[in-house]
Amino acid sequence: xxxxxxxxxxxxxxxxxxxxxxxxxxxxxxxxxxxxxxxxxxxxxxxxxxxxxxxxxxxxxxxxxxxxxxxxxxxxxxxxxxxxxxxxxxxxxxxxxxx
Length: 99
Prior knowledge:
alpha+beta
């Protein structure tokens, strides 16, 4: 039987990953993954640590996200989403609760 401690909870929280799609100010889409979605969105919109692509197209708006069990799983899902056509990505938005 596994006993939950603060240390175990912290490790479990770090293992989660997110994949997300942003809509940039110019209407283009950006797909990424992270283990801290709030921090990453702030970086995309305000800091020098945001992706080069989004720095030139601010502000960006979160249009879609998925929570996955690990960052590795999020990166795999990111690769799959990047292979989708724009129309298919837009269809994801309509099924998302972010719309």
